[in-house]
UniProtKB/TrEMBL annotation:
It comes from Onishia taeanensis. Pyridoxal 5'-phosphate binds at residues 138, 223-226, 281. N(2)-acetyl-L-ornithine binds at residues 141, 280. Its main location: cytoplasm. Pathway: Amino-acid biosynthesis; L-arginine biosynthesis; N(2)-acetyl-L-ornithine from L-glutamate: step 4/4. This is Acetylornithine aminotransferase. The modification N6-(pyridoxal phosphate)lysine is found at residue 252. Keywords: Amino-acid biosynthesis, Aminotransferase, Arginine biosynthesis, Cytoplasm, Pyridoxal phosphate, Transferase. One of its GO terms (cellular component) is cytoplasm.
Amino acid sequence: MSYTPTRSDFDRYMAPNYAPQQVIPVRGEGSRLWDQEGREYIDFAGGIAVNALGHCHPVLVDALKDQADKLWHLANVYTNEPALKLAKTLTERTFADKVFLCSSGGEANEAALKLARRWAYNEHGEHKDKIISFRQSFHGRTFFTVSVGGQPKYSQGFGPVPGGILHAEFNDLEAVRELMGDDTCAVMVEPMQGEGGIVPATQEFLEGVRALCDEHQALLIFDEVQTGVGRSGSLYAYMEYGVTPDILTSAKSLGGGFPVGAMLTTDAIAPALGIGTHGSTYGGNALASAVALAAVEFIDTPEVLEGVKRRHALFRELLEEINHKHGVFKEVRGMGMLMGAQMSPAFEGRAKDILPLAIEEGLMALIAGPNVLRMAPSLVIPEEDIREGMARLERAIAKLVAQA
């Protein structure tokens, strides 16, 4: 059967849990995309912080093509060379000693939470099972991770949520202190809340949470699914803060667009995840591991990471210029190539209205909740694409202001 799909086919054939824009991109190169009609777009969305090197970067394409001719999948009855190379590289470049490979950020966070509970059970007994997370946090769509996430809208209507989960206010150390106890097995935190509005943690907050975990013999889990692999300007955001977790989760930019996730931990904790305790059918398959290895090795270089920080400064400068003209933003914030612009009171809740206007101008962007415009472009987006994309964004915002 040969036919050209249309946007109406989504409504006809796909489950209705998404509401994609009306255009269908068919080709990408770098930070630009083209739709079915041949119209060009600049990509500030980055596949929701996934396309770390843009579209069809030759380093990733070459890694995929090379591995595609050798070996795709074995499952975990056997191991494979790309998976072992990736695990070795991740441990050499981070605090970790051991790696669990999987297919997504949700899987990585599920593994982290299960590991924390299992470790606490083995080391301290069944009473030590409480997990502390934060309001407005987001950790995935499995039932465990969506329950640990601090946005009830994602778990409502699916029945009783797992027990032993507590939520504190983000960046409020005293709120964490009040919940901590001898029954706390782990604290799970994003160094910068992504879906919760692009809110970086303060230095004092993360240092304080680390100290509380040490005091109560609890594990500190950093969810770096969105902030990891160069997105913050360091390989992982914990390096920006100088605060080391016990468990770290990674996905999104890790594969540069290929589905892959990883959980990193130490020799002291990893044995709790013994044979048969957890698994992932596609986790660590040769194709994903080869692409992820190429991504990590390319991104974790001074040239790329320093470039992320330069691009951040340019993004912030241009967003402030737009705001000076139109007054639509209350605050511009973020780290590296993960930026958020919170809407001003006059445009409260209208971040989502910018997206279709931006599409009209040839720009793809995101939101992080109804009140924050989010940008998570390629880490290597050319300066000319940043400037042209911002010009298109300004035209979209001018339309928004005219509608007010």
